[in-house]
Amino acid sequence: MSPSTEGIVCSPLEHAPLHLASEVLASGESAQCLVNPELGLRFPIRNGIPVFIEAHQITGINSRFRKIYDDWAPFYDLLSRVGLYVLGVSEIKLRQDFVANLEIKAGDRVLATSVGTGSDLQFLPRDCEFHGLDQSPEMLRICQRKMGRQGIGAELFVGQAEHLPFKDGSFDMVYQMGGINFFSDQAKAIREMVRVARGGSKIVIMDETEKVARRLESVPGVRAWFRHQQRPIVPPTELIPHGMEQLEYRELYNGQAWYLSFRTPNHARASR
Ligand SMILES: C[S@@+](CC[C@H](N)C(=O)[O-])C[C@H]1O[C@@H](n2cnc3c(N)ncnc32)[C@H](O)[C@@H]1O
Protein backbone atom coordinates (compact mmCIF):
# COMPACT_ATOMS: atom_id res chain seq x y z
CA MET A 1 0.00 0.00 0.00
CA SER A 2 1.36 3.38 -0.99
CA PRO A 3 1.84 6.03 1.73
CA SER A 4 -0.76 8.18 -0.03
CA THR A 5 -3.34 5.38 0.22
CA GLU A 6 -2.40 4.72 3.86
CA GLY A 7 -3.23 8.39 4.41
CA ILE A 8 -6.84 8.02 3.18
CA VAL A 9 -7.93 4.65 4.62
CA CYS A 10 -9.99 4.56 7.79
CA SER A 11 -12.16 2.04 9.58
CA PRO A 12 -15.43 1.62 7.66
CA LEU A 13 -17.79 2.08 10.63
CA GLU A 14 -16.06 4.52 13.00
CA HIS A 15 -14.00 6.33 10.31
CA ALA A 16 -11.03 6.06 12.67
CA PRO A 17 -7.51 6.47 11.25
CA LEU A 18 -5.52 3.29 10.54
CA HIS A 19 -1.86 2.60 10.02
CA LEU A 20 0.12 -0.28 8.59
CA ALA A 21 1.58 -2.78 11.02
CA SER A 22 3.27 -6.18 10.80
CA GLU A 23 1.97 -9.29 12.51
CA VAL A 24 2.99 -12.93 12.80
CA LEU A 25 0.25 -15.33 11.67
CA ALA A 26 -0.57 -18.69 13.32
CA SER A 27 1.32 -20.30 10.42
CA GLY A 28 4.47 -18.49 11.53
CA GLU A 29 4.50 -16.27 8.43
CA SER A 30 4.62 -12.53 8.85
CA ALA A 31 2.00 -10.34 7.20
CA GLN A 32 0.84 -6.76 7.16
CA CYS A 33 -2.42 -5.42 8.53
CA LEU A 34 -4.10 -2.09 9.20
CA VAL A 35 -4.61 -1.20 12.83
CA ASN A 36 -5.92 1.38 15.24
CA PRO A 37 -4.53 0.22 18.61
CA GLU A 38 -6.50 2.81 20.64
CA LEU A 39 -9.82 1.38 19.42
CA GLY A 40 -8.56 -2.21 19.18
CA LEU A 41 -9.24 -2.34 15.41
CA ARG A 42 -7.36 -4.67 13.07
CA PHE A 43 -7.98 -5.37 9.39
CA PRO A 44 -5.87 -8.09 7.71
CA ILE A 45 -4.15 -7.64 4.35
CA ARG A 46 -4.49 -10.86 2.33
CA ASN A 47 -2.66 -11.32 -0.96
CA GLY A 48 -1.90 -7.59 -0.91
CA ILE A 49 -5.59 -6.62 -0.48
CA PRO A 50 -6.86 -5.05 2.77
CA VAL A 51 -9.97 -6.84 4.00
CA PHE A 52 -12.57 -4.62 5.68
CA ILE A 53 -15.41 -7.14 5.76
CA GLU A 54 -15.51 -10.90 6.26
CA ALA A 55 -18.21 -13.19 4.81
CA HIS A 56 -19.81 -13.86 8.21
CA GLN A 57 -20.28 -10.12 8.84
CA ILE A 58 -22.38 -9.60 5.69
CA THR A 59 -26.15 -9.63 6.02
CA GLY A 60 -29.22 -9.29 3.79
CA ILE A 61 -29.10 -9.44 0.03
CA ASN A 62 -25.39 -8.44 0.09
CA SER A 63 -24.60 -11.80 1.64
CA ARG A 64 -26.41 -13.62 -1.18
CA PHE A 65 -24.57 -11.65 -3.84
CA ARG A 66 -21.19 -12.06 -2.15
CA LYS A 67 -21.58 -15.83 -2.51
CA ILE A 68 -22.87 -15.59 -6.09
CA TYR A 69 -19.97 -13.40 -7.23
CA ASP A 70 -17.37 -15.41 -5.30
CA ASP A 71 -18.64 -18.61 -6.98
CA TRP A 72 -18.97 -17.13 -10.47
CA ALA A 73 -15.83 -14.95 -10.48
CA PRO A 74 -13.79 -17.21 -12.82
CA PHE A 75 -16.57 -17.05 -15.43
CA TYR A 76 -17.67 -13.44 -14.94
CA ASP A 77 -15.69 -11.85 -17.77
CA LEU A 78 -16.85 -14.39 -20.33
CA LEU A 79 -20.46 -14.22 -19.14
CA SER A 80 -20.56 -10.45 -19.24
CA ARG A 81 -19.00 -10.29 -22.73
CA VAL A 82 -21.42 -12.89 -24.11
CA GLY A 83 -24.39 -11.39 -22.23
CA LEU A 84 -23.70 -7.92 -23.62
CA TYR A 85 -23.22 -9.36 -27.13
CA VAL A 86 -26.64 -11.04 -26.89
CA LEU A 87 -28.11 -7.67 -25.89
CA GLY A 88 -26.48 -6.15 -28.99
CA VAL A 89 -23.84 -4.20 -27.04
CA SER A 90 -20.08 -4.36 -27.60
CA GLU A 91 -18.41 -4.56 -24.19
CA ILE A 92 -15.30 -2.75 -25.42
CA LYS A 93 -17.32 0.15 -26.83
CA LEU A 94 -19.49 0.29 -23.70
CA ARG A 95 -16.47 0.50 -21.41
CA GLN A 96 -14.64 3.00 -23.62
CA ASP A 97 -17.69 5.29 -23.69
CA PHE A 98 -18.31 4.86 -19.97
CA VAL A 99 -14.73 5.74 -19.05
CA ALA A 100 -14.68 8.73 -21.42
CA ASN A 101 -17.73 10.12 -19.58
CA LEU A 102 -15.97 9.91 -16.22
CA GLU A 103 -13.85 12.95 -17.26
CA ILE A 104 -10.81 11.73 -15.31
CA LYS A 105 -7.90 14.17 -15.33
CA ALA A 106 -4.18 13.43 -14.99
CA GLY A 107 -3.28 12.75 -11.38
CA ASP A 108 -6.90 12.30 -10.22
CA ARG A 109 -7.53 9.90 -7.37
CA VAL A 110 -10.38 7.68 -8.57
CA LEU A 111 -12.57 5.16 -6.73
CA ALA A 112 -14.80 2.41 -8.18
CA THR A 113 -17.11 1.14 -5.43
CA SER A 114 -17.79 -2.29 -6.97
CA VAL A 115 -14.84 -2.79 -9.27
CA GLY A 116 -15.45 -6.52 -9.80
CA THR A 117 -12.84 -8.05 -12.09
CA GLY A 118 -11.64 -4.59 -13.14
CA SER A 119 -12.79 -4.70 -16.75
CA ASP A 120 -12.74 -0.89 -16.92
CA LEU A 121 -9.16 -0.57 -15.79
CA GLN A 122 -7.50 -1.03 -19.18
CA PHE A 123 -9.48 1.95 -20.50
CA LEU A 124 -8.64 4.34 -17.66
CA PRO A 125 -5.86 6.90 -18.09
CA ARG A 126 -2.63 5.43 -16.72
CA ASP A 127 -1.77 8.67 -14.94
CA CYS A 128 -4.66 8.46 -12.46
CA GLU A 129 -4.42 6.90 -8.99
CA PHE A 130 -7.00 4.13 -9.15
CA HIS A 131 -8.70 2.49 -6.14
CA GLY A 132 -11.16 -0.38 -6.55
CA LEU A 133 -13.39 -1.78 -3.80
CA ASP A 134 -15.62 -4.84 -3.95
CA GLN A 135 -17.23 -7.13 -1.40
CA SER A 136 -16.16 -10.28 -3.31
CA PRO A 137 -12.54 -11.32 -2.71
CA GLU A 138 -12.75 -13.76 -5.62
CA MET A 139 -13.74 -11.02 -8.09
CA LEU A 140 -10.79 -8.99 -6.78
CA ARG A 141 -8.46 -11.93 -7.17
CA ILE A 142 -9.31 -12.05 -10.90
CA CYS A 143 -8.93 -8.28 -11.08
CA GLN A 144 -5.48 -8.51 -9.51
CA ARG A 145 -4.38 -11.16 -12.05
CA LYS A 146 -5.59 -9.01 -14.96
CA MET A 147 -3.79 -5.98 -13.56
CA GLY A 148 -0.60 -8.04 -13.49
CA ARG A 149 -1.04 -9.15 -17.11
CA GLN A 150 -1.94 -5.65 -18.31
CA GLY A 151 0.78 -3.92 -16.26
CA ILE A 152 -1.79 -1.78 -14.42
CA GLY A 153 -1.16 -0.46 -10.91
CA ALA A 154 -4.18 0.04 -8.65
CA GLU A 155 -5.06 -0.37 -4.99
CA LEU A 156 -7.79 -2.93 -4.25
CA PHE A 157 -9.93 -3.37 -1.12
CA VAL A 158 -12.44 -5.94 0.09
CA GLY A 159 -15.24 -3.86 1.54
CA GLN A 160 -18.82 -2.76 1.18
CA ALA A 161 -20.08 0.16 -0.84
CA GLU A 162 -22.37 1.03 2.07
CA HIS A 163 -19.40 1.42 4.47
CA LEU A 164 -16.42 2.77 2.57
CA PRO A 165 -13.09 2.54 4.39
CA PHE A 166 -11.92 5.99 3.27
CA LYS A 167 -11.76 9.38 4.90
CA ASP A 168 -14.13 12.19 3.86
CA GLY A 169 -13.15 14.05 0.68
CA SER A 170 -10.47 11.57 -0.44
CA PHE A 171 -11.33 11.20 -4.16
CA ASP A 172 -11.56 13.41 -7.26
CA MET A 173 -13.93 11.01 -9.04
CA VAL A 174 -16.12 8.19 -7.71
CA TYR A 175 -18.09 5.71 -9.81
CA GLN A 176 -20.18 2.58 -9.57
CA MET A 177 -20.81 0.40 -12.64
CA GLY A 178 -23.17 -2.56 -12.24
CA GLY A 179 -24.22 -4.02 -8.91
CA ILE A 180 -26.07 -1.19 -7.15
CA ASN A 181 -29.48 -2.51 -8.30
CA PHE A 182 -28.99 -5.29 -5.75
CA PHE A 183 -27.06 -3.57 -2.96
CA SER A 184 -28.68 -4.03 0.47
CA ASP A 185 -28.81 -0.26 1.02
CA GLN A 186 -28.58 1.85 -2.13
CA ALA A 187 -29.19 5.16 -0.34
CA LYS A 188 -26.32 4.53 2.06
CA ALA A 189 -24.02 3.49 -0.80
CA ILE A 190 -24.75 6.76 -2.64
CA ARG A 191 -24.26 8.85 0.52
CA GLU A 192 -20.92 7.11 1.00
CA MET A 193 -19.85 7.95 -2.57
CA VAL A 194 -20.65 11.59 -1.80
CA ARG A 195 -18.88 11.53 1.56
CA VAL A 196 -15.58 10.24 0.17
CA ALA A 197 -15.65 12.58 -2.87
CA ARG A 198 -13.99 15.98 -2.75
CA GLY A 199 -16.13 19.04 -3.43
CA GLY A 200 -16.76 19.51 -7.16
CA SER A 201 -16.13 15.82 -7.92
CA LYS A 202 -18.08 13.95 -10.55
CA ILE A 203 -20.01 10.88 -9.38
CA VAL A 204 -21.29 8.36 -11.95
CA ILE A 205 -23.56 5.38 -11.38
CA MET A 206 -24.77 2.93 -14.02
CA ASP A 207 -26.61 -0.39 -14.00
CA GLU A 208 -29.03 -2.41 -16.07
CA THR A 209 -32.73 -1.55 -16.30
CA GLU A 210 -35.61 -3.74 -15.21
CA LYS A 211 -35.97 -4.88 -18.84
CA VAL A 212 -32.52 -6.54 -18.82
CA ALA A 213 -32.83 -7.95 -15.30
CA ARG A 214 -36.07 -9.71 -16.32
CA ARG A 215 -34.33 -11.12 -19.42
CA LEU A 216 -31.46 -12.38 -17.26
CA GLU A 217 -33.98 -14.13 -15.05
CA SER A 218 -34.91 -16.32 -17.98
CA VAL A 219 -31.34 -17.59 -18.47
CA PRO A 220 -30.86 -21.04 -16.89
CA GLY A 221 -28.24 -20.87 -14.14
CA VAL A 222 -28.60 -17.12 -13.77
CA ARG A 223 -32.29 -17.47 -12.80
CA ALA A 224 -31.33 -18.63 -9.30
CA TRP A 225 -29.49 -15.34 -8.69
CA PHE A 226 -32.80 -13.51 -8.80
CA ARG A 227 -34.82 -16.02 -6.81
CA HIS A 228 -36.44 -14.30 -3.80
CA GLN A 229 -35.46 -10.98 -5.33
CA GLN A 230 -38.77 -9.14 -5.32
CA ARG A 231 -37.43 -5.58 -5.41
CA PRO A 232 -38.22 -3.88 -8.72
CA ILE A 233 -35.31 -2.13 -10.40
CA VAL A 234 -35.80 1.60 -10.01
CA PRO A 235 -32.93 3.93 -10.98
CA PRO A 236 -32.03 5.64 -7.70
CA THR A 237 -32.59 9.26 -8.79
CA GLU A 238 -34.69 9.87 -5.66
CA LEU A 239 -31.78 8.78 -3.48
CA ILE A 240 -29.35 11.49 -4.63
CA PRO A 241 -28.62 13.62 -1.56
CA HIS A 242 -30.02 17.14 -1.52
CA GLY A 243 -27.67 19.85 -2.82
CA MET A 244 -25.88 17.83 -5.51
CA GLU A 245 -25.27 19.69 -8.76
CA GLN A 246 -25.44 19.01 -12.54
CA LEU A 247 -27.72 16.02 -12.09
CA GLU A 248 -28.06 14.06 -15.31
CA TYR A 249 -30.14 10.94 -15.95
CA ARG A 250 -30.21 8.96 -19.22
CA GLU A 251 -31.21 5.59 -20.50
CA LEU A 252 -28.65 3.98 -22.80
CA TYR A 253 -28.46 1.06 -25.21
CA ASN A 254 -32.14 1.06 -26.18
CA GLY A 255 -33.33 1.39 -22.62
CA GLN A 256 -31.19 -1.52 -21.39
CA ALA A 257 -29.04 0.53 -18.99
CA TRP A 258 -29.63 3.58 -16.81
CA TYR A 259 -26.90 6.18 -16.28
CA LEU A 260 -26.84 8.78 -13.53
CA SER A 261 -24.23 11.45 -12.91
CA PHE A 262 -23.92 14.48 -10.66
CA ARG A 263 -21.31 16.64 -8.95
CA THR A 264 -20.74 17.31 -5.29
CA PRO A 265 -21.03 21.03 -4.50
CA ASN A 266 -17.79 22.90 -4.96
CA HIS A 267 -17.90 24.81 -1.65
CA ALA A 268 -17.32 21.49 0.15
CA ARG A 269 -13.98 21.05 -1.66
CA ALA A 270 -11.65 19.51 0.89
CA SER A 271 -7.90 19.69 0.50
CA ARG A 272 -5.83 16.51 0.40
C1 LIG B 1 -22.31 -6.81 -12.08
S1 LIG B 1 -20.80 -6.85 -11.19
C2 LIG B 1 -20.01 -5.40 -11.85
C3 LIG B 1 -18.52 -5.46 -11.73
C4 LIG B 1 -17.76 -4.37 -12.48
N1 LIG B 1 -18.06 -3.06 -11.99
C5 LIG B 1 -18.01 -4.45 -13.98
O1 LIG B 1 -18.38 -3.42 -14.57
O2 LIG B 1 -17.80 -5.51 -14.56
C6 LIG B 1 -21.33 -6.33 -9.60
C7 LIG B 1 -20.21 -6.27 -8.56
O3 LIG B 1 -20.72 -5.64 -7.39
C8 LIG B 1 -20.15 -6.27 -6.26
N2 LIG B 1 -21.01 -5.96 -5.10
C9 LIG B 1 -22.27 -6.39 -4.90
N3 LIG B 1 -22.76 -5.83 -3.78
C10 LIG B 1 -21.77 -5.03 -3.28
C11 LIG B 1 -21.67 -4.16 -2.15
N4 LIG B 1 -22.70 -3.99 -1.32
N5 LIG B 1 -20.52 -3.50 -1.95
C12 LIG B 1 -19.46 -3.65 -2.81
N6 LIG B 1 -19.50 -4.46 -3.88
C13 LIG B 1 -20.65 -5.12 -4.13
C14 LIG B 1 -20.11 -7.73 -6.65
O4 LIG B 1 -19.23 -8.49 -5.85
C15 LIG B 1 -19.69 -7.63 -8.12
O5 LIG B 1 -18.29 -7.67 -8.25
What is the H-and-E element order?
HEEEEHHEEHEEHEHHEE
CATH architecture: 3-Layer(aba) Sandwich
User: Major sheet: order of its strands?
Assistant: 7-6-5-8-9-11-10
Ions, cofactors, ligands: which are bound?
S-adenosylmethionine
The quaternary state of the protein chains shown equals single chain
Task: Report the CATH topology name.
Answer: Rossmann fold
Instruction: Label the structural class.
Output: alpha/beta
Overall morphology: globular
Task: Give keywords.
disordered C terminus; 272 residues; alpha/beta; 11 strands; Rossmann fold; 29% helix; 7-stranded mixed beta sheet; binds S-adenosylmethionine; globular; single chain; 4-stranded antiparallel beta sheet; 7 helices
Descriptive notes:
The protein has 272 residues and is an alpha/beta fold. The protein has a single domain, classed as 3-Layer(aba) Sandwich (Rossmann fold). Helix content is 29%, strand content 25%. The chain has 7 helices and 11 strands. The strands form 2 sheets. The protein has a 7-stranded mixed beta sheet with strand order 7-6-5-8-9-11-10. It has a 4-stranded antiparallel beta sheet with strand order 1-2-3-4, with no helix packed on it. Helix 2 crosses helix 4. The longest helix has 27 residues, at 60-86. Residues 268-272 have low confidence and may be disordered. The site of S-adenosylmethionine has 19 residues, from helix 2. S-adenosylmethionine (SAM) binds next to helix 2.
